[in-house]
Amino acid sequence: MTPSPQDPPKTSQTPKTSETPDTELPVTDLPVTDLPVTDLPETHRLTAPGGRRITYCSYGDPAAPPVIVLHGTPGSRYEGLALRQAATDAGLHLVFPDRPGYGGTDPVPGRGFHRWNDDFVALLDHLGHERATLVAISGGGGYALSAAQQHPGRVTRLILACAAVPGAPRSAYARRIPLVKWLNRIVVRAPVIARPMLAGKGIFKKTRREPNLDAWPRSDRLIMSTPAFRALSEVDTAEGQRQGVDATITDLAGYSRPLPDPLGSVSVPTLFLHGDADGNVPVEVARWAHAQIPGAELRTVPDGGHLFLLADPEPLLRELT
User: Are 163 and 282 in contact (CB under 8 A)?
Assistant: First the structure.
């Protein structure tokens, strides 16, 4: 996700926010090693107003109130496989929809994060619920923030987990992994080159097969080096890019621009969950955004990387139960 060229506004006013000390959310040293990717869940389909198709998967207890979870970039409804057992054990019902242009969900013209707002409403109506907690992981952040701004009456609570935030200042990305910085700049400045990169084609085949693990924080390296994670990533990415990489490029480019409405207009209870060693979306992004939203909370995971939910989903489960 490309950093914005703008710097954060200077202010002498103390934001009406709070941050929980890092020590309250310890992260395990051992990654999840048994991700069930061979038994894929049922894909549910609905038709949105206008005839568009929306696909989603449910994980956990279908009798429980739904929690809508937005996957990262690229990604798909299969991202929920990593949380399936945890959701079942906790008695939660996690609903992972494919965002526009990913998996089996039809694209929406345009490039703004508001493109998912109508899908959110259609999904809630389809599930028979007026409101739900809305969770965003990584690249799902912009879509969740937009939906919360436009439909606050339908969002019980907003939780942003290692989430990207549109328009975050360049300074917030100072600790970002150079390889990720490079990719996001190419997406914005040379999308023709970005397409084969994201698709892992041509000279980029080896890069996709053999990611540079040394560049990532230790906690992420532990997870990314497991066969289980690689299998999950392959299934999730392949499904997410089934329609091509247009949606991915739109997402990544979109984070270089702020949302049309200021973050301060978010009126629903908001929580940021973020690993303090995240090298993809540095924790400074969460801290910056947290300060913009009145009453927002921030909980950080000590030594947690971008994939901290795979190492230990407890920080999220604790907020949902």
Answer: no
Q: Which residue has the tokens 């690993």?
A: 275
User: Tokens 């693990």 sit at which residue?
Assistant: 213
C-beta separation of 77 from 239 below 8 A: yes
For residue 42, give the 3-state DSSP assignment: coil
Instruction: Evaluate whether 120 touches 146 at the Cβ level (below 8 Å).
Output: no
Nearest Cα to 158, choosing from 286, 14, 20?
Answer: 286
Counted residue by residue, the chain has a size of 321
Rg of the chain over Cα atoms, rounded to whole angstroms, equals 18
Q: Can you read off the two tokens belonging to residue 269?
A: 């209870």
**Structure token pair of residue 12:** 């002498």
Among 65, 69, 16, residue whose Cα is nearest residue 267: 16
State pLDDT tens for residues 26-82: 334 433 445 556 689 999 999 988 899 999 999 999 999 999 999 999 999 999 999
- In angstroms, the CA 265 to CA 268 distance is 9
Question: What does the alpha-carbon distance between residue 148 and residue 154 come to, in Å, rounded to a whole number?
Answer: 8
Question: Which residue is listed with tokens 């008695």?
Answer: 91
Tens of pLDDT, residue by residue over 112-170, are 999 999 999 999 999 999 999 999 999 999 999 999 999 999 999 999 999 999 999 99
Q: What are phi and psi of 258, to 5 degrees?
A: -70, 160
- Over the range 188-205, which residues count as b (16 or more CB within 10 Å of their CB) and which as e? beebeebbebbbeeeeee
- Hey, what are 53's tokens? 């198709």
- The pLDDT tens digits for 196-239 are 667 665 545 555 545 567 888 888 999 998 988 989 999 999 99
SS3 266: coil
